[in-house]
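Reminder to self: tokens first, then the designed residues, so the page reads top to bottom the way the pipeline ran.
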């Protein structure tokens, strides 16, 4: 039996652009930054750890935005994940240039939040969900 992965992702928006990542080996799919929650971690602690590991920056984890289920097939095997999504402020980053990843297999880039559907965002339902979540009262962006 396959396990369901629990993933935490952060939404960092500055000056109308959202921070995304994708494989440094090419491809059109992009993702919100984040990663797996390790056993014994809370989602917020896991997201702060992932931001430090991937970008080397301190993160202030904001409010919980929502959850997105995702099922897919990879290398012929079915996978399932639950994505927990939080607003996040990343200290020391500017949307004026793409941040350098600390891990060689990913690259980060800023993408206009109003053109998210062009980014190849996965899980795909996050495009529509993010548009709704960001309209909620109280969502805070950095540098806007």
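Designed residues (144 positions):
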């Amino acid at each position: 039996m396959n396990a369901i992965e629990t993933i935490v992702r952060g939404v960092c928006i500055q000056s109308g652009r959202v921070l995304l990542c994708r494989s440094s080996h090419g491809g059109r799919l992009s993702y919100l930054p984040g990663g797996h929650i390790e056993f014994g971690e809370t989602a917020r602690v896991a997201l702060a750890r992932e931001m430090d590991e991937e970008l080397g920056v301190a993160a202030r984890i904001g409010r919980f935005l929502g959850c997105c289920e995702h099922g897919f097939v990879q290398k012929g095997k079915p996978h399932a994940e639950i994505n927990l999504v939080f607003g996040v402020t990343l200290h020391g980053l500017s949307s004026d240039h793409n941040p350098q990843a600390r891990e060689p297999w990913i690259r980060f880039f800023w993408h206009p939040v109003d053109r998210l559907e062009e980014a190849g965002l996965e899980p795909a339902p996050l495009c529509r969900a993010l548009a709704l979540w960001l309209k909620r009262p109280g969502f805070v962006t950095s540098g806007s």
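The chain has two helices and seven strands.
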